[in-house]
Amino acid sequence: MAENTVKIGKNLVDAEEYLAEGHNFCTGCAEALAIRLVCKAVGKNMIINMATGCDEVCTTPLPVTSWRVPWMHTLFENAAATMSGGEAGLKILMEKGKIPQRDIKCFAMGGDGATTDIGFQALSGALERGHDFVYVCWDNEAYMNTGIQRSSSTPYGSSTTTAPAGKVSIGQKTQKKNMVEIAAAHGIPYTATACPSYPFDLMNKVKKAADMKGPAYIHILAVCPTGWRTASNKSIEIGRLAVETGFFPLYEVEYGKYKMTVTPKKMKPVSEYLKPQGRFRHLTEEETEQIQMKVNANYARLQKMIECFPAA
Amino acid sequence: MSKRVALEASHAVAEAVKMSDVDVISAYPITPQTHIPERLAEMVANGELQANYIPVESEHSALSACLGSVAVGARSFTTTASQGLELMHEVVYCGASMRFPMVMVVCNRSLSAPISVWGDHSDVMSCRDTGWIQVFCENSQEAFDLTVWGYRVAEDLKVMIPVMVNLDGFTLSHVTEPMFLPEQSEVDKFLPVFNYPYALNPDKPMTHGGLGQPDIYTEAKVAQEIALRKSKSVIIQGWKEFGDIFGRHYSPVEQYRAEDAKTLLLTMGSYSETAKVMIDERRARGESVGLISLRLWRPFPYEEFRKAVSGAETLIVFDRSISFGMGGPVFSEAKSALYSEASRPKVVGIIGGLGGRDMAVKDFEYVLDRGKEIAEQGSDRMIEVVGVRGEMIKA
Ligand SMILES: Cc1ncc(C[n+]2csc(CCOP(=O)(O)OP(=O)(O)O)c2C)c(N)n1
Ligand code: SF4
Ligand SMILES: [Mg+2]
Q1: pLDDT block averages, 10 residues each, chain B of length 395
Q2: A126, A83 Cβ separation under 8 angstroms
Q3: What CA–CA distance (Å, rounded) separates A193 from A205?
Q4: Strand partners, B348
């Protein structure tokens, strides 16, 4: 438990800030908020390897840094591989008595591009090998750092700079890659989705993942006002709408057992989520309806999984 | 007391890794490097070596994992060849730029296409500018020695630059030769415990690998260049102390019957041993010929190289790769290193031994004779390649 805590409702939260003030994230960036929460959930005994992306670029303009925990970045597609080495190194150094025995949480982090596209292989390798680490993906649904290009995590119908909506194109023509299920399919102990609009749900999952022996994967939806063309004071609200419309369900998979961790009382229509976002502004009613059908189908499938493999 | 053993060069490397008390090994198999990771995996499985062996899913991840393991303070090793080195290329560059000390052994092999598993120096030449300290071996003994020495140099606080030990695929990696294995205590005397001062440690948070904007990138790169150039004194000191303890001596530019030679042949790697046989034969016939081999490729040993060739009339540089559109890369560097000298030999470049094409003693005879001929008469060919078939080389 952290030394300096504050009580928020019934939750005890670390009062320390591990992501320092003065970073360069855009106003209203939910990725920055998510990072802050993840670190608070774990506390000082962590080390991080981060992939290239907004997260890395916005926090470390040399010679200054926003990191109050040990942090490294090498390249774009190798965060999981690099942390494989970090974890393996710490483990053997402790085994050989070269450094004192200690519980250090190893984290690899990257955007959706770093995770679902270019770093997919390295991530799969690290999950399969069973390293004791947590991989966190900030999913802002495009390559934001390089100017809002599409990724395989960009949702259908969204307009990005490399899959722009145009006279003869809806924009993104493919369905969002289901990275959470792919991670879970590695048979790892813990996989979850999260969103900083639900900070305690997020932090609980991160804590659980960090305490679990073996690999864990957390997929965090991070509203990006710049890339999504949303108002910078609406990020929390839009994150909530993603969950309340069933567009991005919050759930976890623990040793193959499924659990919905936040269940919307009444499902809102997906149009409420799409409407405030410039990237979906071009969609017709018909197209929105198509997306609604897909969201329904995905949600129903998830509910079936929960029914079939319920957590105790 | 060291003991005399017969070891395949690949296994000699594995012994060196073991005796260097490496903590993390992360490697992906590729011919002709496979015997190294296989032997290491076996050592770990038998409990002969207490290390964490990470069976990564690619070479990109192999080296990436090493950057992570060095970052937490673990002595780390990887090994690759050819396509593997190409696949990890950006990590190679990044590792040196982040000043992560470690050793990588490259079993030099040609590059696709056409795919070829056999040896040449195309792979390492593509890494010339990556910022690693790069050395070449000629036999099993050197493969062992330079691996152990590599850690000593890389980890020196004045250096903190990774070391790439090159050994020729098959013609060295798979050759069993007699060599001396030292006592562990001798290795321990030479190689101190790795004590990485910048390890990721929650008690002392540090940031590695931030964003370098135009106001700082230049300084970072120049600092790196200066560090690599300055590493030469530690490199030489390391070899001196190595010689004191083990009785085997190394230098940046190795010379063989070269001191008074009018004609010098320059080689790198295991073919130097074949070339030496030719040199002996020619010397026996009274010809004034000698051999120099570049042991140290990066940092380029300007002084030692210039000195070694200063008395010669002709320098024939033998390259085992092509820099397309330009010719032999070693030739071009040798030539440029001498350009500013008031007196210098004529420099001739000949390429050979590509993709495992054998270079026998008679082929080195050709290199010498043809080299001298070009030095005297010039050449009407676009490129000089030993034994190449066809009319295509005519200018
Ligand atoms: C090998 C390589 N290819 C491309 C890039 C350029 N690049 C840097 S960050 C980035 C996109 C990052 O997207 P994502 O991972 O989704 O993170 P975000 O910036 O959106 O948070 C790209 C394409 C790179 N740095 N390295
Ligand atoms: S572009 Fe998006 S993800 Fe990147 S810093 Fe700005 S708001 Fe955050
Ligand atoms: Mg992204």
Answers
A1: 94 98 98 98 98 98 98 98 98 98 98 98 97 97 98 98 98 97 98 97 97 97 98 98 98 97 97 96 98 98 98 98 97 97 97 97 98 96 91 68
A2: yes
A3: 8
A4: B316
Q: Which residues pair with A109 in a beta bridge?
A: A50, A136
Q: Which is the CATH superfamily of the domain at A5-308?
A: Thiamin diphosphate (ThDP)-binding fold, Pyr/PP domains (3.40.50.970)
Helices A79-95 and A120-129: crossing angle in degrees, nearest 10, is: 30
Three-state DSSP at B167 gives strand
Question: Which chain B residues touch A47 with a CB distance below 8 Å?
Answer: 72, 200, 202
Give the separation between CA B125 and CA B117, rounded to whole angstroms: 17
| Type and span of the H or E element at A252 | strand A250-254
pLDDT score of B390 = 80
Q: How far is CA B53 from the centre of its chain?
A: 24
Q: Yes or no: say if B393 and B381 are a contact pair by the CB < 8 Å rule.
A: yes
What's the pLDDT at B395?
58
Please give the Cα distance from B282 to B278 (Å, whole number): 6
Q: Which amino acids bring their CB within 6 angstroms of ligand 1?
A: A 31, 52-55, 76-77, 110-114, 138, 140, 143-146, 151
- Whether cis (ω within 30° of 0) applies to the bond prior to A63 is yes
CA distance A67 to chain B (A): 7
Q: Beta partners for B78?
A: B104
What are the distances in angstroms from CA B34 to CA A66, B44, B106, B175? 42, 16, 11, 14
Neighbours of B78 (CB within 10 A): 33
Say whether B112 sits in a helix, a strand or coil.
coil
CATH number for the domain that contains residue B340: 3.40.50.920
- Tens of pLDDT, residues A21-62: 999 999 999 999 999 999 999 999 999 999 999 999 999 999
Whether B207 contacts chain A with CB within 8 A: yes
* pLDDT tens figures, B72-91: 999 999 999 999 999 999 99
pLDDT value at residue A3: 83
Domain ranges of chain A: 5-308
Least Cα distance to B355 among B121, B167, B85 occurs for B121
What domain range includes position B272?
A: 253-393
Interface of B with A in 27-86 (CB under 8 A): 50-52, 54-58, 60-61, 64-74, 76
CATH number, residue B112? 3.40.50.970
pTM exceeds 0.95: yes
Both tokens assigned to A299: 């949600």
Give DSSP secondary structure letters for A180-246.
HHHHHTTT-SEEEEE-TTSHHHHHHHHHHHHHSSS-EEEEEE---HHHHT--TT-HHHHHHHHHHTT
